[in-house]
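pasting for the record
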Amino acid sequence: MLQLSCGFFALSCGSGQLPAQASCSPSAEVVQVAAGVYVRPGHAAVVFEADEIANIGFVVGDRCVAVVDTGGSLAEGRALDCAIRDVTDLPVCYVINTHVHPDHLLGNLAFKRPGVEFLGDAKLPRALALRGDVYLERASAYESRALDVSIFVFPDRTVTGTVQLDIGDRILTVRAHKSAHTDHDISVVDEKTRIAFLGDLLFLEHIPVIDGSINGWIDELEAMSGESFVYVVPGHGPTSASWPAAAGPTVRYLADLRQNVRAWIGSGGDLASAQDNIGHGRIADWRLSERYHRRNVGAAYAELEWED
């Protein structure tokens, strides 16, 4: 387990402080999905095998800018920072991490400077501490250079329930969710435009990946279906989508998987045979199904075999 000391846990992260802001070249290419709301599109790929995987973005208020996820490396974070400076001279005041996965938060260090507050779910520090050694090893291999624990920036403020952030004539509602994609998912809603950044609570085109609870994930998306979002930004897939229709593919995939795994367990089937047989032929429309579907079967089996 990574030994860190940055507030919540005793981790020895070093200063994590960049020198004065780095040169802004190149800037990330961003899409404006609503007035003051921008997304850097990701693409379907495997973490530590490609760059720019997750959708990340920012919201511009009258006072400052809030960043929602920072990408999979310092370079991605710096490019996003440059894109913000192309849009506005206002400072970044918040960085909100939707969950622990490295394609969403290893760009944090680009924003580690005075005046920037980092937020995440209350369980995020523990999740990052537990996974940090693996992330560090894989990030170092991918970048072909020795990285150290200073790449990790932990939240200054952790969230349970809901908090609201005022960035100037614009309120962002930051909500912690029960175990779903992970056990520490965060969503961010811009109340001015009713655009919601859902992180990996929502996948489009890229197959959903279970790292939390299949039951909780279905429950969360179904409960959120009554929300009046104008558009949602998924963690992976198109930069914006209509709600609640956008929840349909993820819910259907998870519900079908749950039904099939429950039936397999009920018939006395074991995990290995479940992974070999469940769902194949019905997942061809999902990108990266060959990399993640078997893993999803295993995660669902581990949870559902203990149901009453």
